[in-house]
Amino acid sequence: MNAENITLSSTDELANAIAKFIYTKIGINDGSVSFFKQHVEGFSWETYEIEICWVGDGADHSREFIIHRVPEAGLLEPYNVKPLFELRKLMEDIEGVPVPAMLWMDEDGEATGRPLYVVEKIAGEIPTQWTSDQFFANNTLKESTSRQLMDICARIHTVPVELAPEGLRGSGTSSFAMVDYWHEIYRNDMLEPVPTLDWGFAWLYQNKDRISERQTILHGDFRTGNYIMRDGKVVAVLDFEDAHIGDPVQDLAHFALRLFRGRTRQPSGLLPLGEVVAVYEDKSGWSVPIEAFHFWSVFEAVYCAITQHRAASLFARNRTNDSRYPALGYQARHLDRYVLDYVTAAESGLPPE
C-alpha cells in the first residue's frame, strides 16, 4: 500500500484505520472502536487515545492505547519515527526509568498515510506548568517529585551513547551541533528575521566553549507536563520526541526554563533552581558547570522561541489550518524576551532565573 495515496477525510475514518492496524497486531479479524479522542496538549506529534473492543474465546475484551502520529505540519520537522521508537524501547530496559511500553510502529504510514507508533496507556494524572501550583499542594510533594524526576533524568544520562539507535540526532557529532541544527531551521523557516534570535545565536557561537565535556542520551523535553503521576509517584515519563545525544546540562536547563515554571515561578513548578540542581548532582554524582547551565539556558530559550515562530510560519504558509499555531506565534514574542534575559544573566554571572 502506498501511504501517499491515503487520504482520511473524517475522524471516524482515522479511528477505523488505526483500529484496523491494531487488530492486525493483536491477532484479531474484527472489533469496534468504543472511544477515540485527539489530545490537543502537544504540538510536536499528533496524539490520540483509542479503546477497542472485540470478542474472543467466548468473552468480551477491551483495551486502551495511545497513538503518536507524524503531523501534517509539525514543529519538529523533519520526522523520523524509527529511531524514536527504538530509543523508547531501549528505555524500557533501563532500571528506574518508567516509560509506557512501546507496542507497534507503522514506519511507512501504510495504515493512515503518515507514520505512527502505538504505546500502552498508563493510568494517572499529568501535571502541567499551568496546573502545577494546584497539583503540587505542599512542599513535601514538590520535593519528592523533584527527587524522583532528577533520579530518572540522571539514569537516562547514564545510558551508554553506544546503545543509541542509528539515526538518533546528535550521533557522531559534538553537543554544539544542536545549535547548528536549529540555526539552519531558523534561517530556512522563519517568515522574517528576528533580531533577538540573531543576537541569541551570535552569543551562542561566541560562547561555545562553555558547554560541558560530557555527552549522553538526552530526553530533550524533560519537564512538568511530560510525566504521569499516580499516588505521589512518577509512573511514566513521556514525550521523547526531541531526544538526541548531547550535553546533559541541556536537559536540566530545559527543565528549569521560565516557559515551564507556571504560576509558582519555580523550575517546572517544583523547587527553586539551586535545589533542583543539587538534587540532580546528588543523584548523578556529577557537579553541573554553571557556565554550561548558562549556555544551555540561552539555547533553550532560542530553541523554544524558534518552534513557536515556526508555528506561525507553518500557518501563514497554509501548511496547517490548526488555530493553535498562530496562537503559538503570538506567544513567541514573550520567548524572544526570555532570550534577552538569559543572555543578560549569562553575561553577569547571575543565576539564570
Percent of sequence in beta strands: 15-25%
**How many helices does DSSP assign?**
10
Name the strands of the widest sheet in spatial order: 1-2-3-5-4
Structural class category: alpha+beta
Tell me the Rg in angstroms. 21 Å
Low-confidence stretches: none
Per CATH, the architecture of the largest domain is Alpha-Beta Complex
Tell me how many strands there are.
9
Total of domains: 2
Order of helices and strands: HEEEHEEHHHHEEEEHHHH
Mean pLDDT: 92
Distance between termini? 52 Å
Under CATH, the topology of the largest domain is which?
Aminoglycoside 3'-phosphotransferase, Chain: A, domain 2
Per CATH, the class of the largest domain reads Alpha Beta
Share in helix = 40-55%
CATH homology superfamily name of the largest domain: Aminoglycoside phosphotransferase (APH), C-terminal lobe
| Main beta-sheet strand count, sense and barrel state | 5 strands, antiparallel
User: What does the overall shape look like?
Assistant: globular
Blueprint of the fold:
Blueprint: H1 11-26, E1 32-39, E2 46-56, E3 59-69, H2 81-91, E4 102-106, E5 116-120, H3 132-135, H4 139-157, H5 177-189, H6 195-206, E6 216-218, E7 227-230, E8 233-237, E9 244-246, H7 249-256, H8 273-284, H9 290-316, H10 324-348
Antiparallel strand pairs: 1-2, 2-3, 3-5, 4-5, 6-9, 7-8
Helix pairs in contact: 4-8, 5-9, 6-9, 6-10, 7-9, 9-10
